[in-house]
Write a structure and sequence with these properties.
The chain has five helices and five strands, in the order βαβααβαβαβ. By secondary structure, it is an alpha/beta fold. Helix 4 packs parallel to helix 5. The radius of gyration is 15 Å and the shape is globular. The chain binds adenosine monophosphate.
Length: 147
């Protein structure tokens, strides 16, 4: 099997996400691969409710979320020497955007946490599960323990 060349780390900034980051960094070092990071500002609760017309899409609120997320991503990038051109901030469905960015940038390994904000009820969290099922490349789900 050839070495990984481009690894994409998906971060939700939820507790435990540093374990996922460390694993992705280790792998990037081991394979001498490029390491990118992605965070997706999830707009699902605002747009896909089935009663969306009742709730105006609040652009100011989304802009504020994007600004805060950009700062967090930039800080993470700085801490791990990941340059700005390898930091992806997207808006939409996390699994869809993670897969799209991976495909468009020839990523050959996506690293996610087994669980994040979407809880522990399932064997895998919903984003991790969606990425695992739909990505064209390898996916590593780093097993996170519930605190
Ligand atoms: P979940 O499926 O929400 O339990 O999250 C599992 C993993 O998917 C997290 O540990 C992250 O690696 C990734 N993930 C979840 N939400 C996002 C997001 N909004 N942006 C980027 N990655 C995410």
């Amino acid at each position: 099997m050839s070495n990984y060349k481009h690894i994409l780390l998906a971060v939700d900034f939820y507790e435990n996400c540093s374990a996922v980051t460390e694993r992705a960094k280790d792998l990037a070092l081991k394979y001498q691969a490029k390491l990118s990071i992605i965070h997706v500002v999830d707009n699902l609760p605002l747009t896909d409710t089935g009663y969306g017309a009742e709730i105006a899409f609040n652009i100011d609120f989304m802009n504020e979320l994007m600004t805060n997320a950009k700062k967090k991503l930039a800080k993470l990038g700085e801490e791990h020497a990941i340059t700005e051109d390898l930091q992806w901030l997207e808006m939409g469905s996390p699994k869809t955007e993670i897969i799209r960015v991976a495909e468009e940038n020839k990523v050959d390994l996506i690293v996610v946490g087994s669980h994040g904000r979407h809880g522990w009820a399932l064997l895998l969290g919903s984003t991790a599960n969606g990425v695992l099922h739909h990505a064209n490349c390898d996916v590593l789900a780093v097993r996170l323990q519930e605190n």
